[in-house]
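Journal club prep — side note

Before the paper discussion, L.F. wants everyone to see what a predicted structure for a comparable chain looks like in token form. Sequence:
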Amino acid sequence: MRFAAVIRVIARTELYPTPVAAPKRAGARDNRGMSEASGSRSGGGRDRDAEGRARSTRPRDGLGRPLPYGSEGVARQPEGVVRTPEDTVAEAQVLLDAGKPFHAHEVFEDAWKSGPGEERALWRGLAQLAVGLTHAARGNRTGGARLLRRGGGAVEEWAAGAGQARPYGIEIAELASWARELATVVEGEATAVDAREWAPRLRG
């Protein structure tokens, strides 16, 4: 299994604390490219995508948590979109500002899957930060703090190695500082944080 696929499996294990049917295709995102307004099942009893592959159509909320079938869900990001780095940052920022770090993580995931190898650690670290904020907003203090610190350290390490303090305008130092601050807050809070209120400014 490729390294990126392993990371995706780890991220999804931490993102879905409740049991969710594993996708049949390694690295595939369930619910991608399908309507999640109602989350219906196929007549045969198994969820299938538009191409007939077994894949969960269970709706999810704005933080990626599974909802009961028939509930009003929030649509996921389309799968496998190749964006420019600038578009990736801009789209992720819009989602973060809307209180949807789970969706922002999927945008960053597309970037690390489709971008050049030398930048994958950057996009992976950004995805970890978005996942960490998702956990924090769900009230998972341990997972949130751990991923925030891991992601912050990852982007700092990448920036130091690449000699780029502001790749695509991203303020790495400020972002890492935000991650450490939020990790400390999360560890001391008894309730979930507000994802919209704590959304980071990627470009300062």
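L.F.'s comment for the group: Confidence is low (pLDDT under 50) at residues 1-11, 13-28, 30-43. Keep this in mind when we get to the figures.
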